[in-house]
């Protein structure tokens, strides 16, 4: 079982991705901004960090800078997710749009873990929307609506 640090200032996305990662049999640490995430990473040494790009107090880019400068944390793979186009940040191993399908989210998480030497986990085809709580399905629906307007 891998430990994944999930960082997002939008509680709905934090809840949705937490549920997805838990359905994939991962332990999830949660942070609402980069500063809180850095503290958790220093204390718990997660196997993977999945962070939003734009957050208050410390952005995802600033978090990445701190992680790669830390000798103990620099090898932790980082997935950046954002509604913006592919933002670049130090140490980011993969970028994932917030508009990505859940199956793509699962794929990117599993690949980042495999590339770092950990094993992929979870059901063979990942969690389906019907596996999610009502609140997470609603967040997913709202996200899909917002993403369709951006296209």
Automatic annotation (TrEMBL):
It comes from the Bacteria. Keywords: Phosphoprotein. The modification 4-aspartylphosphate is found at residue 52. The keyword Phosphoprotein applies. Coiled coil: none annotated. The keyword Phosphoprotein applies. InterPro entries: Bact_response_regulator (IPR050595), CheY-like_superfamily (IPR011006), Sig_transdc_resp-reg_receiver (IPR001789). Residues 117-136 are annotated as: Disordered. PROSITE patterns: RESPONSE_REGULATORY. Residues 3-113 form the Response regulatory domain. One of its GO terms (biological process) is phosphorelay signal transduction system. SUPFAM superfamilies: CheY-like (SSF52172). This is Response regulatory domain-containing protein.
């Amino acid at each position: 079982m891998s430990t994944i640090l999930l960082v997002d200032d939008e509680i709905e996305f934090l809840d949705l991705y937490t549920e997805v990662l838990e359905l994939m049999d991962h332990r999830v640490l949660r942070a609402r901004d980069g500063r809180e995430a850095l503290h958790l990473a220093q204390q718990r040494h997660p196997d993977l960090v999945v962070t939003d790009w734009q957050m208050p107090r410390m952005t995802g880019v600033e978090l990445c800078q701190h992680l790669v400068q830390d000798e103990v944390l620099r090898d932790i793979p980082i997935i950046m997710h954002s509604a913006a186009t592919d933002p670049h940040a130090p140490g980011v191993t993969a970028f994932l749009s917030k508009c990505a399908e859940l199956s793509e989210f699962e794929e990117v998480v599993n690949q980042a873990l495999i590339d770092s030497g950990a094993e992929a986990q979870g059901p063979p085809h990942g969690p389906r929307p019907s596996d999610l709580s009502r609140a997470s399905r609603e967040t997913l629906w709202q996200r899909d609506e917002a993403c369709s307007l951006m296209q």
